[in-house]
Amino acid sequence: MLSCRSDTSNIHFTRIHNLLYSQKEASHKIMMGATKAIREFAETAAEMLKPPSDTTIAKQPSEDHNDKSEDYIYLRDKLNRRINRKKHTQQQQRVSYEVEGSMTTTLLHIVNEILSKDNNTNNELELCKLCLSSIISFTNPRISALFKNLLPQNLFQEAKSACESGKAKLACSVETISYIDTIVNGLLPFENDRNTNNCIAYIDHSKYKESDKDTEKYQLLCIIEKAIKAMTVIKKSNNPQEAFWVRKHMEIMEILFDDTEILVSDGESICKDTRAASSGSSFGRRVDILVSVGVGENAVNLASLEVKRKDATVTAQLYQQSKNHRINCGILNRNNCLMGITDLSCIYIDIVGPSGYIVQLKRHNDYYITQVLDNFHMPTELVEMDFLKKFLTMLYSWKALIVQQSIQLKKSLIVRKRKLSMIETIIDSQGNDNSSASSKDSILPIKIYHSP
Mean pLDDT highest for which of 184-193, 333-342, 414-423? Predict the structure, then answer.
């Protein structure tokens, strides 16, 4: 059975009430000459003033929606305490339960089982964060293995099948691939050079020959120029800081989207979608790179990108991955509600130094699924020039998906605003106001956990 925290004020009120009642009884016994009552009162007071343990406030599980919300809040707070390394002096009660059909309920049970242990690994804590956000992750082998071991076989297979059937396809136009092959093949003769001078000269000459500076080929030349010039800095510093990689990837993405209405923001941008009620937070979370379309009230976030330096530890990479999953869940929550469907995907990137992987996040029933679509590596020295083709192909394949989704969301936002403005003035022939019912989101967002 799941344990739930009762309202703190009610607990204190009950303690004080019982304490006063005990005092009244003790006074009565003293008046009767029973001096033994003083010791009884002292023992009773000491017992009542002890902090309550998790085992003393357990309640029976219920199918009521409000009770399940209380279960979620209790487990969220319990995870926060565990993350903050607060020690519990009293023994945690290990709870037993019967696995139910619902994925979200089962994920809450898993969190409770993990936190019932005295100590947890970093992998287990990150798994708890994902479970409280109703996310089944197939992006990390360690986390995926934990899900496979802890989930009932039928639920794991259901998620796995949904993952495979809903996988997005990364596709790049034939024309773009042809441009990439031509430019990279022209650079290959210089892959054994000691410096990048010949490569830069080749790029400059190719840019000069392009009379139209708005073509995709010219855009590709500018991106490749950024990547090659970064090699000199990387060679000098050996292991650049995280800020360097944020800046370099940001510069490339600004060029990538310069022929669209998509905006790319860096500098620890705040993702407003993490302030939603479903996120249980009143302030937004900062991200390294935020991809969006529109400005002001018409802005719609499309993807959050997180960046770590090349030598980031496995623990740091796992933390980044989990955080980025949950932030993009907040983005997808809003976009699903905006479109009124649950078929959308959020396609985003996790970056570690020059390497990265493209992730797909998609909703299935009452939970989310994440999986890796493909990976890439930006060359950091000339001998890695072979990686340049895939790096550029992946970028333009990701761009195609982002642009397509931005068009859909921007149109949906305009239509939604127009409908809401009309609803405010429309009353049916019976005199009933339909605005409240019509303006509500038809899609119920999924709760997302964010670390305190």
Answer: 184-193
The whole-number average pLDDT for the span 423-444 is 52
**Tokens, residue 165:** 């059937």
pLDDT given for residue 283 in this prediction: 63
Average pLDDT over residues 109-118: 89
Residue among 254, 187, 190, 264 at smallest CA distance from 222: 254
Of 223, 238, 245, 389, which Cα lies nearest the Cα of 309? 245
Collapse the DSSP code of 362 into the 3-class scheme (helix H, G, I; strand E, B; otherwise coil) and give the result.
strand
Task: Report whether 114 contacts 120 (CB < 8 A).
Answer: yes
* Whole-Å CA distances, 259 to 253, 254, 382, 389, 427: 11, 10, 29, 21, 44
Give residue-wise pLDDT tens across range 383-403. Answer: 999 999 999 999 999 999 999
- Contact call for residues 110 and 373 (beta carbons, < 8 A): no
Buried/exposed code over 255-287 (b: 16+ C-beta within 10 A; e: otherwise): bbbeeeebbbbbeebebbbbebebbebeebbeb
Which two structure tokens, joined as six digits, stand for 152? 């009932």
Q: What pTM was estimated for this model as a whole? A: 0.77
- CA–CA dist 437, 410 (Å, integer): 23
Q: At 203, phi and psi to the nearest 5?
A: -65, -45
